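Holo model, coproporphyrinogen III. Inputs:
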Amino acid sequence: MNNTVSQKPFLRALKGENLKSPPLWLMRQAGRYLPEYREIRGNVSGFLELCYTPELAVEVTLQPIRRYGFDAAILFSDILVVPDALGQAVRFEEGEGPKLNPVRSVADLDILSLDRLHEHLAPVYETVRRLSVELPDETALIGFAGAPWTVATYMVEGKGSRDFANARGWGLQDPEGFSKLIDLVTEATAAYLCRQVEAGAEVLQIFDSWAGVLSENEFEKWAIEPTAKIVSTVKARYPDIPVIGFPRGAGILYKRYVAETGVDAVSLDSTMPLDWAAENLQDKVALQGNLDPLLLLGGGEPMDREIRRILDRLGKGPFIFNLGHGIIKETPPENVARLVDVVRGG
Ligand code: CP3
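Output:
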């Protein structure tokens, strides 16, 4: 590894170094809270077009880096490009979440295929390639994917859901059938992440946003096992690539997730007790998190106080400052500027 790369603060923290001022980036740091994002978004017909147009995806990835100087840039894309590339077309309708024609049985899986995966995702790899050239020397580049469980919830429900009754129900009633879907998404995701590394991603994050609805047995089968497979596939080819896992809402199951998946770091959601995390996780992996996005939305003294509490509790071990979930779109950009100041010692 060359010197410039190993000196990036974000990569140093992920290797277990304890930095005086923690590196900082925010989930969903590119997006609708930024006027410069809304301007570009207004000129394309759909959100996925933005993800598949390297010139524009590079630009919106760089916007928050220019404005705030974060320590890492995250590739601008979406977790749902994977089902889209497998042949289950994804639509984003204005003002609504994603829509897919649901797959709910083994027979439905016939529409899915790995054959055109990389061809379909080539524009995303091109975006990563361009970013790896254009980013400032001290800024790390994060590639990402959804974890198989979270991606599968959208594939089975056909949209966002509250209770995930179809996805969980399929897994509980017919685990063998449901694991065919999970295995396919796992294979696609591992291959997708390897290509992102080849294109220049220096870190990978796996978003399991809906891990928190799973019981312990389900968590083991649908969150831990597929993630462990992805991590081992990636590490077999790229042993030095750090992987951050985000099993949002997993509570004390974060401990098994850390012990059994092989990730180098975990992103903590805002409900995680900080002392518990410091005690049970931070001697094994780097921690990332976990300011409540609602505190960033509101700003002011309540935000400052919580930032200082997080720095105090987690800053003693390897740590990366982040939110507990993505930025809320109504967040005033000046609150983000304030957050950056406070984290960096203001
Ligand atoms: O800045 C970044 O973090 C990088 C880009 C990024 C997006 N989505 C852009 C996006 C990342 C890392 C994601 C991850 C993602 N996408 C997750 C996991 C993280 C999480 O938030 O839990 C999930 C579950 C999705 C699926 C998804 N994408 C939904 C449910 C929606 C609709 C809800 C919404 O916020 O609009 C999206 C759309 C989406 N993904 C937008 C952006 C900027 C907004 C679309 C727009 O601009 O019209």
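The beta strands are 72-74, 91-92, 98-99, 140-146, 203-208, 243-247, 265-267, 286-291, 319-323. The first strand starts at residue 72 and ends at 74.
Archived with the compound record.
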